[in-house]
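quick one before i forget lol
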Amino acid sequence: KQWYQRRVRGRYHLADGSEVDPDCMSKGYSYGKNFVPISKTDNNLIRRPTEKELKLICTTKRRNVRREEISARNVSVLMAPLDDLSKGQGLTAFAIALHELEMVAICRYIY
């Protein structure tokens, strides 16, 4: 049984045309062909509060990282703030050193 038939202007309606109260709705995720509802309490338990972070975990030789681990979804571009010349120079020196030594930096990035 479907919980709603259609969404009209941000509101959900049942198959009989009556509007669904937003307080009666819960978040859910599709899992294969099934829909798994998740309550706010369960969602708070599985989602840890995080802060933005960029942390260098280690550096390693490029040959130690498989090619398929370096893909568009795992690689980010890092830029120094435009108004701080010393940070830009430090980041540039680090990037050049990694390139010359054929190394990569493994980082944890939370945005």
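fyi Residues 85-100 form the longest helix (16 residues).
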